């Protein structure tokens, strides 16, 4: 199930310079962002666990990127 709102993704595309955005394009980018975000989150969790922490920090996310 998608968690990011399509409207927010559409705004990102518009901020990037698009005059118009098709609903399919916004949904495709949403899906790609969620996939990439999930992968990064999983890496950040692994980094926190490796450091002996339960809390994921900003540094974990930066390293996961």
Explain what the structure shows.
- This protein has a single domain (6-64), classed as Histone, subunit A, CATH 1.10.20.10.
- Helix content is 69%, strand content 0%.
- The chain has three helices and no strands.
- Helix 1 crosses helix 2.
- By secondary structure, it is mainly α.
In short:
With 65 residues, this protein is an all-alpha fold. It has helices at residues 6-15, 23-50, 58-64. Helix 1 (6-15) crosses helix 2 (23-50) and helix 2 crosses helix 3 (58-64).
Q: What is the makeup of the main sheet?
A: none
- Give the CATH class: Mainly Alpha
Sequence of secondary-structure elements: HHH
Q: What share of residues are in beta strands? A: under 5%
CA-CA gap between termini: 23 Å
CATH topology assignment: Histone, subunit A
Structural category is mainly alpha
As a whole number of angstroms, the C-alpha radius of gyration is 15 Å
Structural features:
Histone, subunit A, 0% strand, mainly alpha, 65 residues
Blueprint (SSEs and pairs):
Layout: H1 6-15, H2 23-50, H3 58-64
